[in-house]
Amino acid sequence: MNAKRLGWLQTHSLVWMVSGLIIWSVHFVLIYVLQAVSCALGWASRDLAGLSFINVILVAMTVPLVLLLLYLAWGSWLAWRSSGRTPDDPTGVTPFMALTALLIHAISFLGIVWVTWPVLSARLVRPVLQGKPISHRLLPH
Amino acid sequence: MIEPRSTADRLDARFSIFWSAPSGLGQLSAVNHTSIGNRFIVTGFIFFLIGGLLAMLMRTQLALPNNDFIDFQTYNELFSMHGTTMMFLFAVPILEGFALYLVPKMIGARDLIFPRLSAFGYWCYLFGGVLLYSSFFFGQVPDSGWFMYTPLSSREFTPGKGSDFWLLGVTFVEISAVTAAIELIASILRTRAPGMTIVRMPLFVWAMLVVSFMIVFAFPPLILGSILLEIERAFDLPFYAPERGGDPLLWQHLFWLFGHPEVYIVFLPATGFLSMLIPALCGRPIVGYTWIVMALIATGFISFGLWVHHMYATGIPHLALSFFSAASLAVVIPTSIQIFAWIATLWLGKPRLNVPMLFVIGFFVNFIIGGLTGIMIALVPFDWQVHDTHFIVAHLHYVLIGGMLFPLLAAFYYWLPHFSGRMHSESIGRLVFWLMFLGFNLTFLIMHFTGMQGMPRRVYTYTDGLGWDWPNLVSSVGGFVMSAAVGLLVVDLLLHFFYGRRAPRDPWKAGSLEWVTRLPPQPYNFISIPEIKGRDPLWVQPNLVEHTENGGGYLADPASGRRETLGTSVLQARPEEVIHLPTNTFLPLVSASFVAMFFVGFLFELYSVAAAGALLALASGFFWAWRSGDLQDPGEVDAGHGLHLPMHHRNPTGPGWWGTLIALFSNGALYASLLFGYYFLWTAVPDWPPSAYVIHDLRLPTLGLVSLLASSVCVRWAISRLQHAKLPQFRAGIVAAVLLAGGFLVAEFLAMRAYAVPAEAHAYSALLHIIVGYQFVHVGVAILAAVFVLVRVHFGYVGPQRQLGARVMSLFWHYTVLAWVLGYTTVHLSALTL
């Protein structure tokens, strides 16, 4: 991978800098919307190989986003490592932006894992709740 | 004997000729950011005093059990107006005022990039606030709480005009927030002094950049929610009425989609203050600059994922609640990063314990308490226990007063020499602080206990024997101590302007650029625009003041007689253009008056007056745009130091393009909220949409969509022809686009006319009409803009060398078409396929 560029998106841009949090936002919207849609369509009560269908969907949506996030974080890491103060950039814009991007990728990663945690743990507590998926048991009637 | 005048004084006299505003009534035409910022601050402070007065009336009522000082109706009005005033008329506008005042001075610009827009925003704020408060004269004061929950605020349960005053007044005020945000983003990104790269931006400017983006995306949901509720109240279109396919929860979603980011919109500027004050008062650079920037950006995003934590008790699926609980806890991380960076700066520096620093310490103590109770109520089970009790009231006041008012007062004392040219009184200031700190904690610390004892919020009285008596009395006493502090502050201010000691230049020995100006500053800020060589320019560039004053920087020659500032690149701040800024004009006042005519007409159901106001406002907008150009093209102008730059009209992505782009982001957020409403109701309401109400005939709508898509292609082609100086082809392309857009209007209009279901029948049919109506308005404006550009080309304002106007129009056009791709999918496809 080229450290400086992903398609039209360069490490040297404000959009790259906040890309981690854009992915966090996309994930947050999707996890909320898919959950709502699943409930509306009655998927909450369906099982898939012993797992709650809704939880499988939410995790399946999360994985590619996390991979994309890690890929971008790696790009930021490379950009940060290779950036030095050059005559063209005496004030260090490039290292600053790469480091900020990397920190933002890190906090976004934590944020995604943290927000998805209830989905994972809901599966773990399910046997305690009479074998029903938690998302189903607690739906408003 | 007359002293020979210095170079600085001679330049000052010449710049002042075209930078100052006329005196007397002519002051109303001022557009300069210093004047506008001051007006926001003064008006906001007055609303703060009024809001505080309402709070004192409530505390008087609650001081004793079974008190009959005021009745329940008045009490409802008081808490509704107190919250509304403090959030909409005080917190946001006064912070905007500080930003409008300070940002250009901190980034080395002469003025904001759209001075007339900020003046327009101020008038909207003032008129909206006056409109809201005029409800007292009509005896129709809003009484449904500051978040106006439906169905309480709906026509059935609030039949008078109270809710209408709120919805229209607040929406009017919100225009000012959005215009200020657009203004600040474009100014921060495009007008920083040369050398002020993105690494050297002051942290207050970073905070305002993040906050402005938040405003751009957070205010539209509430604006939309208010528009829908007002339409429901006025024309009986059911968006929130469950018996006709609506849902009251939709209002709560839209309100809190705004309301939670709002908390951070008032908190982040305060953190920006702290990141400026603490280094200056410690005499050392901030610790962890990069980390603070990261924290600001992270807070800006994550705070949009918290809104449902205001709705834990509404019966939302628990899995969804857990996402919001998690995000609510996650937002603590960036906030803590900032707090640790400030503590480290204090630790490593030599802090001076003066009045601003006292308020900083007050912030630390109070905000951390508010933050900790915030973590408690981010947890769903705990929140259920204290939901709608005084515990919540205590928490939110710790966050807002601790997190916003204390930093604001710190900032106020710190920048007071800037506003008045005088130093504050250390002794009175200390007294103000201690009264405020003690009064505040006396009022609200014990209120946690009152809430835990079960006292609900928003009750006008209580019986004795519940254990609520003495904590309420303590809170009331504390409240009066706090108002004594505010009273003393007012006295201090009045004395200050007469007896304050004259401030020297840079009285705090701070490093940031706003202290380069004279105190109080001249309207142009800087006689010349200096080259910036560090994060704290005054600390690293000796003689920066003399250098700037004596014309050693850029644009030091007043000969052009134009208001000018430098346009620079986004990241590296390299000079790119000279921006010609508009001068004093009554246009913002006139435009805002037309908008006021619309709102007042709507309020009193004089719809012809409202329509006239809307049309006049639109016309004044086009007149405004007409006045923005410049027939003369000086080519390149000399910016000093051998730098020759084009005027901004030559830049196809000049200031106007940036402003339009950001405004379209905001507009897009409004539209997204509308589509959210549609899909939310689809998931939340059974049998939605009712199959009998669905449009099945796709022929005309599809013809309209194709026509609109083709118009976008025409506009794109026309712009490329303009670049090649092929003016006849450009005209032909634009005319074709206008005709195609007209084709869309006819096709979609016929399709909707064939749709026999009235908008009042059901939330579904109501939303279809609103989505199509949104599109019609946009296509109409796009057509007018295209015709406007054709006329401008004819008169020579727009041409191959100066494409800005055409580019702005094309941006709007493509947005409109994109919106209909989503609109068509929603209105015509979703119900057939899903």
TrEMBL record, chain A:
Superkingdom, natural source: Bacteria
Bilayer-spanning residue ranges: 14-41, 53-74, 94-117
Record keywords: Membrane, Transmembrane, Transmembrane helix
Name this protein carries in UniProt: Uncharacterized protein
Native source species: Alkalilimnicola ehrlichii
Lineage: Bacteria, Pseudomonadati, Pseudomonadota, Gammaproteobacteria, Chromatiales
TrEMBL record, chain B:
Transmembrane segments: 40-58, 78-102, 122-141, 165-189, 201-229, 263-282, 289-308, 320-348, 355-380, 392-416, 428-450, 470-495, 581-600, 606-626, 657-680, 700-719, 731-755, 767-791, 812-831
InterPro entries, alphabetized: Cyt_c_oxase-like_su1_dom (IPR023616), Cyt_c_oxase-like_su1_sf (IPR036927), Cyt_C_Oxase_1 (IPR000883), Cyt_c_Oxase_su1_BS (IPR023615), Cyt_c_oxidase-like_su3 (IPR000298), Cyt_c_oxidase_su1_bac (IPR014241), Cyt_c_oxidase_su3-like_sf (IPR035973), Cyt_c_oxidase_su3_a-hlx (IPR013833)
Catalytic class of the enzyme: translocase
Pfam families: COX1
Pathway connected to this protein: Energy metabolism; oxidative phosphorylation
Molecular function in Gene Ontology: cytochrome-c oxidase activity; heme binding; metal ion binding
Topology within the bilayer: Multi-pass membrane protein
Keywords: Cell membrane, Copper, Electron transport, Heme, Iron, Membrane, Metal-binding, Respiratory chain, Translocase, Transmembrane, Transmembrane helix, Transport
Subcellular localization: Cell membrane
EC nos: 7.1.1.9
Keyword Electron transport: yes
PANTHER family given in the database record: CYTOCHROME BO(3) UBIQUINOL OXIDASE SUBUNIT 1 (PTHR10422:SF35), CYTOCHROME C OXIDASE SUBUNIT 1 (PTHR10422)
Family stated for the protein in its record: Belongs to the heme-copper respiratory oxidase family.
Protein name in UniProt: cytochrome-c oxidase
